[in-house]
Amino acid sequence: MKLRILAVGHKMPSWVEQGVGEYRKRLPRDMALEIIEIAPGSRRGNDDPARAVAHEGERMLARLGRDDHVVALDVAGRQWSTEKLAGRLDTWRHGGRNVSLLVGGPDGLDQRCLSMAAEQWSLSALTLPHPLVRVVLAEQLYRAWTLLVGHPYHR
């Protein structure tokens, strides 16, 4: 199974690359983590934010695998404990499909992405900066995996 984070944004600071990279290398091969950057829609001047979100949605949908299990990260989604995430991760792993986790831009995810997602997950009720979301998401996926295998990281 591959875990794929499809995230709107580009040119992340080096600390994001380092943070995500650290957890990516800790995960086992059978749970490889990949980040796919989706170019943000134009938000200059009087550009309509809905149009930007729609363009981001098109780009995101085009990058999904045909049989991916899709999880949309959305403020209106369910909040999961680490234990609940570990259970979800175990279910995903035994389902035999790749998992794509969708992270929208500053105006959220396109409705088409939300509609096609099998699950909607909220990392927090707090508003998090998009670069930080990548690191938190990578760390939580790693933490959930350590819980599944009895690794002492999760204490």
From TrEMBL:
It catalyses: pseudouridine(1915) in 23S rRNA + S-adenosyl-L-methionine = N(3)-methylpseudouridine(1915) in 23S rRNA + S-adenosyl-L-homocysteine + H(+). It is found in: Cytoplasm. InterPro entries: Alpha/beta_knot_MTases, RlmH-like, tRNA_m1G_MTases_N. The keyword S-adenosyl-L-methionine applies. Its EC number is 2.1.1.177. S-adenosyl-L-methionine binds at L73, G104, L123, S124, A125, L126, T127, L128. One of its GO terms (molecular function) is rRNA (pseudouridine-N3-)-methyltransferase activity. GO terms for cellular component: cytoplasm. Keywords: Cytoplasm, Methyltransferase, rRNA processing, S-adenosyl-L-methionine, Transferase. Belongs to the RNA methyltransferase RlmH family. Homodimer. Specifically methylates the pseudouridine at position 1915 (m3Psi1915) in 23S rRNA. This is Ribosomal RNA large subunit methyltransferase H.
